[in-house]
Queue: 4 jobs
Job 1
Amino acid sequence: MTDNARRPCEYCQAAIELITLQRVIMSSGHIHVAWICTACGRYARKSKQFIAHAVIEVWEQYGKIPPRDELPIFADNRLPEVRCFVCGQLEAQLHHFAPKALTKYLGDAELWPKEYLCDEHHQLWHSVLTPWMPNVSSTPTAIEIFKTYY
């Protein structure tokens, strides 16, 4: 059984017939997809709740599931009144300036400054300061910064 397979709820042990794919809309507006237990109303998994985007794309491509934006909404975490600290764009997400991945070295990320950033500025921050992290891609601005200062 793969990590992405539908299986009984890890909380209430509901049968797989009661486990459905639903979407979670993050504060940035990005959509994640997860197995949700319709019996207890929780994520069906205790860890790794979200299914990898690449897996969802393949499932959509081969017609195994409907498009993401047609799945039922389990949670909508958008905060329309929250704006990006840099540009003022709506639907920003809370950003930790000490990456949680570096907790071992920097201590508790919650004790470091945090600010709301739009997706563009959040990605830019990571592409310049943490390019080694998974799912971080270089942006033209990040490349320009590297060429200028490094």
Job 2
Amino acid sequence: MNMSLTHNDISTIKELFKTQFEAQTEVLSGSIRDLNEQLVRGQGKQDTRMDRMDARMDRMESGIIEIKSELGDVKVAVLELVGTDRALHSLVRELKGQHIPLNERNIFSA
């Protein structure tokens, strides 16, 4: 059996490979285009989600700032109460020292 290939056979095989290669290249290019479109769409959805998360984080941050401000106000109020309580105790001691009758229970009861 003689299996030698002629120049014509080689050209035919070459054309078949070329045609199949071009067809597979086109299929692969289409698949890559489809994948790229899916990635772009997915990225758009991710961007939208990230924007929503950024907005939520901004709201949370402004809420935290507001809470910090309110805590500062509470701290000032507590310090003023402590100061007032000390001043009241000092006043009661001074008045008692001058023998002025006072009912401490009525003054310091809640």
Job 3
Amino acid sequence: MPAERMQRRLLARGSVLLIVCLGLWWFALREPFLAGLRAGVQAVSWLAGPEVTGETASGDWSLRVPLERTVANPAAPGGKLQIHSIEFELKRSDLFMFTFSLPVFWALLLAVPVERRYLRAYLAGTALCVAVEVALFFALAETSAQRSAAAVSGPPGAQTQWLLAVSDYLISGVVPYAAPFIIALAVHPGLRAYLFGRELEEQTAPPSKSRP
């Protein structure tokens, strides 16, 4: 089959599967995936990372993040107070973006004919997506803790403000949406073959006959 035709088929299948998988995620899988994210966070939090301490009535997550900081003591003017952790809440609606990678990743994989030889790619890619989502949650918790601490100890410097702004942009607006595409291309040779015509033609070209 010509490379251009196979690429068009990949685009059509991928577009339909993205709609189906994202619809399934939105209506049925967001809450189970969010529960899985919380289980993953709790499994890793013993490494002194952010800890989910509970949920509010509206479903927001209450967090405790280890943070060593010296702040002004409101009970003693001019005195200092050492804090070892900070507690705050993350809105539930902000957490769903950390469950976005898996449905997009599987839509991309299923756009290519499923074969047993790609089983390792399916498993490795799924594990990478989960790891990225948990890591992004930890990054968001850390930047949120730094911002909450700054509200108590005083406004951060210009460089710190810039770093927090860039971190928020990458964590919330770039990595969750780019990661499934990058991971799918990295782990699935069949997807790369369909996407890049030259490699596809090389893989699908009939073997040359040897001369007698």
Job 4
Amino acid sequence: MSAEIILDTNALRLLADDEFIEKIKNECHNLVIPNVRSEIGSHFSNFISLIQRIGTELRGKFILFERADRVPRDIKRDLKNHRADENDVKVTGTAIRRRNKTGRPAIIVTNDSAFHQSHRLRNIIKVVYVDEALDVLDC
């Protein structure tokens, strides 16, 4: 089963993990980075060179700065009740967009508790911790 893998900014360290990238490449997943540019610079100073390498390695399975769809009001409210910020809502909107666009399941990889505590979100999108990401890719 292939899926759309959406990384929250706290999961961007997986971009430097060769085993993670290899699993994306071999398991036919798409790796999606939401359009949260304002947060990315604080996580990686070498982000540009990293995405160039990954883009070449994944050839067509890497979607950078995908725009977000509108998040349903009930899900947005639930996320905000769990202290989600606007970038978290963008990550959610990106996952919803990819799920709707491809018809495949979307998985948000994050350590942010707002995602994990939002039952409304987890009814439609799978949410996993960064440390669980490699296990989830074993399809």
